[in-house]
């Protein structure tokens, strides 16, 4: 029996000018005591001991603080196995949990001068760059869905959304974006 | 919609949280040893304080942590929020 | 008591209505009573009325911290039904419903009981199973409740959108004997009738303490209007029950949550019945004055503020607009909140307490208006005889210790 | 007739743009910038509606949000019909179609008006006293009549096609109200660099300044003409990038922690909104600091016949004249209890309106404006009251009298012909929002009103909404409030401003006004004196309420309905209080106020719902295999937020036929089922097994790596919460599955115990529900179908026994393969990363073609598991069932000292002999399928109230058994196996035999194919 082409097939989403579905990625949830984060970070070439609600970048990888004992590790789709083995080596002896969630969620880029306003249709956080500066990230809600929101720069955001909520989240974004293009 | 200060993430909208009921009701280490009335008290009886009371919240759609809060149930204003394991501020 | 009737109205009209006298005296607290009811809502006033009428318990007072009927009685969506799942509940609520059917005549006060039918919607296969289970259980209990197809549901309530919605309506349970009543009239009607039987209704009188003797039995209540001696105290204070019971050192399985309701601007008759959907959280009826009366949900946290969050009423309105898309253009006239005392099994407590002479009627949560006459009647019985009536004997405090819960919530019965 | 009462110049309307509109089918013209009210007045139309109870002819009382009477319906098209709009707030657009309400057959001739004659029969609360006979009479007879009579406009009958939007916003300073005080506050805050939002319910900013005559004739602000100041202020706010200006936006609700809700109207003023253009936007603004500058509302005066068309508030008339360029009448009588009335009189006089008389209620009137009126030679007198008015559809005359302090008449009754009566009882500060925020109110004698005192949020009031009435003072007040609000916001001050944050500037009594009913000469007959226009509440109603013992203001409100109309008593509450305090001889402050609640003015339901409608009402969750199911004609069911394929009918099969076929396929060949919605949790860490032992009722030490076990989860109260297969994939790692609906609940419960009860455990939880898609392949041929696709895995019974798990690859895709069965057949569950699921599913389906594979849905799955007596949590259990009740006692560890729920199982009731237990039921007629939910009876023919001993939880036709089967929870059921009980069906009792819940393959032979 021939292998099926192992191309990843993301869920269907609602189209809208400001919203772009980002290519498939490798994702891991790393959980454990703060004490493991130093070594783990070094192994991946970025800092995992960042302050609360901040992301850190390192080469092809990035890491998002989701909670005091929880990080979301993002990398290129092909890097999943390597991430696991690198962490496996340095963390062998330390209690921790590493779980591959590459397919659990999808990523959106929402960009443009209107980005924050569009998100404000469903996200109750203060998205003024003063209050939510580039580099900040957090789990939060968009209307009735949970999302991970990460501001890349003043007018572009990175969203992580559980795949079955992708249609809904993109739908809300589309409706909000559409509303902004109206007269008056 | 309340504004709740998560000890880890700061002030956040209530929509991100789940309410966890009265705080500081510890589950007995050996429930088998607990008498019928005491067990019922643990399961069901609540102070339901009118005034300042200690309650649990979880920053479910945030950092995911449970924490405790002192809130005045006659105004819904928070006096303080603090981490699990810490005593309520102003008390030893 | 001045008799109310079309005729008396006419004759008083001729006299320019100068002849009407106060519907209840503004009684001042006496030093002692044979029984004191704490809480001047429908339940408390009703209990006093039945104590005086059926148990001749001597001198009875109702102590109300504010104005009678100002608690949940005065702020509820007035849905009345008895199609609860468990035998114990069905017996309790149907006892009340039977009293409702007579209440205007009993009290000689038009409480506008309007059995226009209460319809409960099913939106999923699971809903259908749960609701049909109710229908069958009710039939066995002799409580009317009937299954309607989605089409029949629409015929019964034409504005209902059964089709192109997120959660299509798969059917509904209809209790034709269910309906609504005028909340204020219930409080005033009981007050007037109780007053006529000699009950003292004392407003602006907040209970601040409970005195007990060496044996622990109650002897008096402390109030903002002085000390009142009494051997029997019946607490019927809804959202504030925990506060009062703690004055006697009694802890209860209660938590008080904000529950909101709202009304639209009044419009001409458009809504023939009561519709409830637990799945999308909407409760709608139209009052005699024309407002749509809409029930929202409880907030997540306990509170005594009598107000709730915007997202809670917004959520209810989302559902209303989905089920009745033509109401999207109607406008909210007023929104308010009450304080509902919720038990872990969503069933009430009408019982003696560990403290001799102290009785409690509470835990009605989001759904006790419908029980008003029944609960009042049974509470009076329990106070007068110091033992529960068979109908309320399962609704004890001890059931939580022993595990004999009557879990209407778990069995997915709806609130209100 | 066209705008005969429009003045030649002046006002803020655009005379170059004439707009056509119709009222009750009759066409008129108005001007751009008109409100419907001003346009009708320009055409001499004063009769706009009929009152709620007595159907009295009613006109326009006010010019703004407080209007109680002039309610109309506006119809854009069949679906865009809006009742109960205040004509004073409806912006005119070309083609506007308005209708009056609550009248039949016509506005001028309304049959309902007889109720006015019969009014002695309908005093306050009359309905409580009658309609009680016969007993059924209320519902059958009286109520329908009362209902038809009540209600204002008609509700729309078609679905509303318009769109609504939500927006969250945050700012340092939110300023509510764009009058002079609000503008000044916004300017001051903006100057200090604060993020400011300024909203005003009106189309233009300016508030009361809009009612000032243009240029020098208007008020001056530091020597500058008001309109120049206004233009300059708005200009500089517009220019500021940190300021958001929201006109047509009403702040309607104040919620805890400085959350203020705004309703913004975007299209109602447009002649032709773009197709699908958003109609309203609901803003939720979280503000560091709030400044309320909501102004004051003029009070009517209460005297007999005070409700006729043509009777109007003085400030309103001034606004119609100076804002809209309309003369509301030709000959006016002015009744003043406050100097503001004189300003109106003077402006109207200059515009050519004859002033028949200015009657002042007070004993002297010597303020600046009365003086100016005197200089202008206007007829004036003090100590005046109104004894009555005449005119049916429009006021024709007013009867004035002068009274001495003992209410004895001085001189004769004076009858003044007029077509306009202006009144000003002073101004009631709009404290609605301050009070909604739970801030305290204090009675202020100087302004004869309640004003804000101690705040309960970070909020300040400025200008006339706190009784600072003079223009200059109001602006200074606004500047002060805006400045300090911005400073506190910058300093993140959390304390609430104290009442003393800004002392009240001195005010002369000139604006104090009057509250209550005007004094009447003793024993004057007097007609109806209205307090609440819209609800037809008169002084007699209030008096009757008091007489009947309704003395608490909240009782008076509810008994008379005063203040309960759509205007929420904006013009009536203080007069009602005044009247009550007069009658009870109690200070108004002691009488107290009723509660202010949201919304400040009525708000469209649709705007609360916003985007949440149709597809966006709730998230629609679908699995990666959904589109395949769609392509193959699946019928879906809603399970929580998920859409799940219920069955796959082919060629016109009904549910029953399709399910029978799908079941047969599974039992005889092979079925494929999408189980992706199952909850999945990865439990990882050194103490994983300890954690599992504490959380689950089962024992886990003995579970070897590579094996699975069915787990039962109890609530702390001992009842079944959830269940699912748990696999141990490593010493320190469990792959836990939960029910579809239970996933979030279970994860939350686990986190709760972990974080709050057992923080010492080294375990972490991660949801993998959506990481893994789950493809169940079940049936005797399932092994053959799969083996081909997993070349490097050995699926043989030896290598992969029942309840085992293995890592591997399927079609080259990483997979976690379970050998489990929820059907009783040989079966596997293939877990693959979600993005690959569709391809893998299709591959399996293809491979299965040769083996008669068939896709099956949730309904077949339910039947198959029922044939085996497997429970479904939520169907067999309902939160009141223990594990033992549903036959899972075996799964509950007897040895473990503790686990969640164990202690509760020791409670007497949990082991009571008559607990309902899971059993099977067989009807004697094999074709009869019992309805789920039917009740099980001890014996046939019981009359209600009969006590059922059980109920049917699952009931199906079993294709393989060729008969109906049912699962039921029956009291002491297991002891009744073999007995015959009966089930109360819709048509008569049905005998049923109690059996074991396992109907098919009790020995479980088929598990190995
Ligand atoms: C928004 C809302 C909607 C609802 N909808 C429905 C519905 O549709 N159908 C239904 O059946 N039920 C409904 N309910 C529930 C129902 O209103 C209550 O269960 C019922 O009215 C309780 O009546 P009560 O007389 O026991 O309590 P209340 O009417 O609240 O009376 C208790 C009284 O005790 C007084 N009190 C408190 N403390 C003291 C003290 N220390 N001293 C003296 N007096 C004190 C209070 O002031 C109050 O007046 C709803 C409730 C709310 C809030
Ligand atoms: N109406 C009168 O004739 C009258 C009476 C007293 C004072 N004054 C004058 O009023 C001025 C005082 O100015 P001010 O700014 O205090 O009051 P203002 O009446 O000039 O402004 C209040 C503004 O707030 C708006 N508003 C009220 N509630 C609102 C809400 N909930 N949401 C959004 N907008 C809302 C109103 O539409 C109005 O535009 C002085 O010029 C004083 O002389 C006029
Ligand atoms: C069934 C019902 C109908 C109501 N109808 C109206 C109404 O038409 N107008 C109104 O202003 N309030 C109405 N109310 C709400 C009351 O004004 C008031 O908000 C409620 O009794 C709670 O009291 P509070 O707001 O003073 O706390 C209604 C309340 C109920 C329970
Ligand atoms: Zn947090």
Main sheet: strand order of chain A: 1-7-10-9-8
- Compute the separation of the termini of chain A in Å: 60 Å
Percent of residues in β-strands of chain A: 25-35%
Estimate the global geometry of chain D from the Cα principal axes. elongated
Would you tell me the overall average pLDDT of chain A? 95
Which radius of gyration of chain A do the C-alpha atoms yield?
A: 17 Å
**Share of residues in helices of chain D:** 10-25%
Describe the biggest sheet of chain D? 7 strands, mixed
Helix content of chain A: 10-25%
What small molecules does the structure contain? Answer: flavin-adenine dinucleotide, nicotinamide-adenine-dinucleotide, flavin mononucleotide, zinc ion
Provide the succession of SSEs of chain A. Answer: EEHEEEHEEHEEEH
Strand segment count of chain A: 10
Radius of gyration of chain D (CA) equals 38 Å
Euclidean distance between termini CA atoms of chain D: 92 Å
Salient structural properties:
heterotetramer; A: 184 residues; alpha+beta; five-stranded antiparallel sheet; globular; B: 92 residues; mainly beta; four-stranded antiparallel sheet; two-stranded antiparallel sheet; 1 helix; 6 strands; binds flavin-adenine dinucleotide; binds nicotinamide-adenine-dinucleotide; binds flavin mononucleotide; binds zinc ion
Describe the protein's architecture and organization:
- The complex is a heterotetramer of chains A (184), B (92), C (416) and D (1009).
- Chain A is an alpha+beta fold and 184 residues long.
- Helices cover 23% and strands 34% of the residues of chain A.
- Chain A is built from four helices and ten strands, in the order ββαβββαββαβββα.
- In chain A, the strands form two sheets. A five-stranded antiparallel sheet of chain A has the order 1-7-10-9-8.
- Chain B has 92 residues and is mostly beta strands.
- Chain B is built from one helix and six strands; from the N terminus they run E-E-E-H-E-E-E.
- In chain B, strands 3-4-5-6 form a four-stranded antiparallel sheet, with no helix packed on it. A two-stranded antiparallel sheet of chain B has the order 1-2.
- Chain C has ten helices and 19 strands.
- In chain C, the strands form four sheets. Chain C has an eight-stranded mixed sheet with strand order 5-6-4-14-15-16-13-17, sandwiched between helices. Chain C has a six-stranded mixed sheet with strand order 8-2-1-12-19-18. A three-stranded antiparallel sheet of chain C has the order 9-10-11, with no helix packed on it.
- The model of chain C has no long low-confidence stretch (mean pLDDT 96).
- Strand 17 (331-342) of chain C pairs antiparallel with strand 31 of chain D, so a sheet runs across the interface.
- The complex binds flavin-adenine dinucleotide, nicotinamide-adenine-dinucleotide, flavin mononucleotide and zinc ion.
- Nicotinamide-adenine-dinucleotide binds at residues 176-182, 199-202, 207-208, 250-251, 293-296, 298, 315, 340, 427, 430, 463-465, 469-471, 474, 600 of chain D.
